[in-house]
Amino acid sequence: MPYVLISTQIRLETGPTMVGDEYSDSALMNYLGARKTTMLGNNFSEYHVDEPPRLILDKLEQAGYRVVSMTGVGQTLVWCLHKDTL
């Protein structure tokens, strides 16, 4: 999977950070130290880490990912990263 989305709430820049959904690469989620959770009332799972986005972005860069775009959506910050698969 060459694309990854991570996000956090604006008031929570120190974490937690959402790093994937139930279909994310489990090896990458393990590398990030993410835990899979399902919020009450949701019919889908997400991977979260306690670290702030900056540390997760550093880890993803070390794994070969680069930021493609970043935006703010309401009270949420979202980064899209890509890894070349050559």
TrEMBL record:
Annotated InterPro entries: GFRP_sf, GTP_CycHdrlase_I_reg
Cellular location(s): Cytoplasm, Cytosol; Nucleus membrane
Keyword tags: Cytoplasm, Membrane, Nucleus
Pfam families referenced in this protein's UniProt entry, alphabetically: GFRP
Family: Belongs to the GFRP family.
Name of the protein described by the UniProt record: GTP cyclohydrolase 1 feedback regulatory protein
Organism: Huso huso (Beluga)
